[in-house]
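Supplementary Note 3. Input sequence used for the single-chain structure prediction.
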Amino acid sequence: MKPLPGVLLACLPLILVGLLSIPLLRGYESIVAEQEQQGLARLTRLIATQLSQHTEVRETLLPVAGNALFAHTANNWITVDGVDEDYGELTNRRESYGIQHTLEVNEPYDDESLQFDVISAVQGNDLFLYLRATDDVVIYREPGSLSVHRNDHVQFATIAPSGRFTRYTLAPAESGVATVFEVAGPDQGSRALRPVDNIEAWWRETASGYDVEIRIPLPLVSSQFAISVTDIDDAAARQPRVSIGSASTTYAEDIGRIILPQQSLNGLLDSLGAGELQLVLLDAEGRKRAGTTMATRPGIIPITDTVAMTSSGEGQTLLAAAAAVVSTTGDASGTLIASRNTNAVTDARSQTIRLIIILTLIYTAVAALALFIFAARFNARIRRLQTAPRTPPSDVADPLSGLEEDMTQLNERIRHLEQMSRRLSHELRTPLTIVNSSLDHLTMESSDSENNIYIQRAKEGASRLGTILTAMSEASRLEQSLEPGDYEYFDITAVVEGCMRGYEVAYPDQAFSLEVSGKFDRILGLPELINQLLDKLVSNAMDFATANTTVRVQLTEADDQAVIRIINDGPLLPAPAAKLLDGTGSYRSDQNGDDIHLGLGLYIARLIAEFHGGHIQLQDQEDGGGVVATAYLPILSVRGTRP
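The predicted structure, written as discrete structure tokens, is reproduced below.
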């Protein structure tokens, strides 16, 4: 069995399950959603038929004559503060009054002089009125005046459930919290009788007129209610110019109506919904007459039998909504809207997902078993290849056998190269010692000056060879010793300054300079290795520095790293410079080419920097005058790992 076809064959069941699960899930959801829609539509029509026979429903849906106010159920908590933000979407259901709603006219006027709109809302046991008036001139009541009608004022009248007709007037002396007064009838001069403590009001002047917000306890209000606004523009004469409103507030027989939410119908709809449905009853004009929750805004579902499927606010659960006509006189007189979360669709989806998961697990187990068998056969074959006789790769027909043979030879070659430096160092030291002792003997016995020249050159070559062997041994030992061990926190500034003092003593003929700038936290690592890194970089700079020049050392901080730069004037870097850091390149240090460097010092410096989580960078000076060797060492974030 070939590896790739075997893996594809084992994964084929999983691919098929993924492809088949998509249409399966969609099919289940479509069937259940369609059944849910049809069932909800039938149930809505049945409830609408029952409601059409209910006496209170028929009375509620009767057309309202005249300019009746319609009080909506408030969904938000309302505070009397002269601002309409608490009314939410009810701000889109204002009822407007203008010149066509004139109650009394003493001077000609138009809508730009006076008009108003009003929001009526019921929350808990209170009726809230928010009136927004457009008035070109606002006249307040004079401070200390007992009259409440010689200024702009709002008046409302109601017949309480007890049958008592009462008139109220709001006539403030300034913008802010206002006092509502109960006023007498016209036969008593419409004078103010007493302030009313249980009615709150707020008058707020605006750029176009004023806003008025009023809270009235429902026990003071019945279905008979009217509100009016009177405009006075002459501050001297203070005579009423015009009054407009929903109905007359002067006499009980002329008072208008206000349509309040039917709490009893709310209970009826809740009982018919049985906690599963949310039912809302709309009148012929699309206004909600009963129901605790609006399933959809009026106008979205017309007064015909319809079914809709929409998404909920979270976009995760489907909401099924249906509308049915509630007919009480043979004509369309209302609409019942029913909505509910499609739990059945959600449950069907969950069952389908569970089924897919079970099938996926089964096919996964089968695929895993197939992969296990394939891996076992593959492993057995490799073991047979390991114990089989070696065959040259060129004679192997099986690519796997040839690859195994190549990898074996490559590993052996790598191990041989890793041990070569130690073997060379060990094997060459004995002959080198013999050569050095022989040269010393010849030096003592020879008196020929010409022969002494050649002997001296031989001794220099042997010394150079010894230096190379020492560097190779040092690099090999360092590679083996760079393992995580006992680290310590140390001050990089103190380490660099100590090294520089030692160089000045050890190399009196060489000029050095040190520049330290920046604030350094402590570094985690081994300070003796940092000493060795600095030794290698400074030694390399001294070898290539032009005579009578200064080797400059700079210690700075950048990006949470300690940066050590060693700068020397002299020849530029050979190309490619990267080989100097990995120990694979060699170069000469003087113009005569007598001193050959293998780059092992830079290689050792690179190993130390990488052990401390940093790196080494070599580059020419920007002006071309020499070389800059830079060591980057992280501050307080070092991981001691072998490169």
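Confidence is low (pLDDT under 50) at residues 294-316, 637-643. Residues 147 and 191 are 7 Å apart (CA to CA).
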